[in-house]
């Protein structure tokens, strides 16, 4: 009887505090964009529920102004929706690498991340990504979703279809990834935030690329392969790469996959 009561208490605590295990933001304010990436600038996003969120706009090399880069029918901006940890400062190397390939980047932070107000939830992160999408005015946009951000990008793609979608280390849904990391818990029964990807991805009407590492123990590669199959996506496998390895942030396979998709998008634009 006592054991059962203790178990119920623990499950109750997990139900109440589970989001502290899901979302691991670096809440510290980030420095001004230009001090981290020359030519980058700070922007403010306004969500539908009234939050003011800070983000970085990183122009393509050579640096230019946003209004100039919205002209022309071949401009492609990459919107990055990050994973569950850190903040945009940790993803600055990705933005630099993409900008060096001629791609402007909007590097956003969710509510509760990087000094932003609010508390992260599944619906909240979607509203944050939607506000970021509304701030982009180039003719063509690619969404880049990292891990949990892949689920955010997929949901955004259903609401605001992109011209291309890159999912880095996506899971089929949050419960599947959670069960891997907490095998002793009834994760699927406890979860409040679901983040489905595999069940939703087939409805996305854009070319999809899935990039994953074969050494990933946080989101096992089989989960990413399932997403790629459901999407009919191009799959880019990075041998031996773990979930947080640098090669899945700035490696040639990853950056090349985004750049190649952008070339496809530009090619489609020139024939439309």
TrEMBL record:
Tell me which UniProt keywords the record has, alphabetically: Hydrolase
Q: Any keyword Transferase?
A: no
Q: Which GO terms describe its molecular function?
A: hydrolase activity
Which superkingdom is the protein from? Bacteria
- Residues of the Serine aminopeptidase S33 domain: 75-177
The cross-references to Gene3D superfamilies, in alphabetical order and at most eight, read: alpha/beta hydrolase
Could you tell me which InterPro entries the record lists for this protein?
Answer: AB_hydrolase_fold, Hydrolase_4
Stored SUPFAM superfamilies = alpha/beta-Hydrolases
Q: In its UniProt entry, what is this protein called?
A: Alpha/beta hydrolase
